[in-house]
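Pinned message: reference record for Alpha/beta hydrolase family protein
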Amino acid sequence: MKLIRRAHYLTIFCSSLLALTSLFSFNALSNNLFNSTLLSASLLSDSVFIPISDAEKQQITVQDQTIEVLVKPWQGKKQHGAVFLVGPTDTHASGRGIIRYLRQLIPSKGWASISIKPTEGLYRPNFATSADQVTKAGEKQLELNAYQITPKYSSSQLLELRNFQQNVINECLAQLEAIGEQFPGKRIIIAADDSAGMVINLLHQDKLQQPDLLVVINPYREFEQLIDEQSRDLSIPLQLAELDFPILDLQSENGNIESIAETPARKQSNQMKTSHRYRQYLLQLDLNNQGGWDEALEHIEGFARKMVGR
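Predicted structure (tokens):
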């Protein structure tokens, strides 16, 4: 009987010991994962979420509205010129994701970064907005909340909104040239998402001064199919093919679905150009893949290095 009790107690002891061992192993694994997450977050914070100093903040006036401009001078001995950054329309001048990352780090490569706050609420008119109010800048007349259904509207209304937004970007970039005079050298425009679609259109229409290098990230134009066919501009792939200066085309796997769909066509339309005039790279540019951001910066720096001859 005693022997049976001892065996029973021994079984309980071994089971408890096994449970404790598993618990310690789980805690160790959890701590490793937690520490790894903290390290990744720390690296992300160091390179992206750096506070903006007052010295970087400037303002311009466009259509009687004040627009924020962030200027970060080049760093070190290299002084190649200036980079104008235009992020997606729903971001601030400081940008987010890859644009924010480039704004912070590209000065270390010898380029001053000059960023503008993009126009807001592209192609999202509010049904309550009357026609005479649509063209007023800075009053968020074109915004819808994320939970609202995208409205149906006419081709003429979409064209009016698009022209208004492009005019604002055009005036902004024109004023940035004056700010960029303190950074002589080459000029690069980096534009992302729907802003990239507008910048490409403006360049194709010769409304913007040609840069020495254009970098587009996930370019697209929203609701293009709603415009009457006879009123549509050329597609982004065809417009890029007709631009006569170097173009770096970066496409993220998590980009807008329309941008992803046009990726093969953009490459196909530009296949006759040399590698010094057009290159396309497929990258991972979401928040969980900062390595993709590093790769994007390397591609920009490499292309720009050939441009400045160094």
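Pinned by admin. Summary line: The first helix runs from residue 2 to 48.
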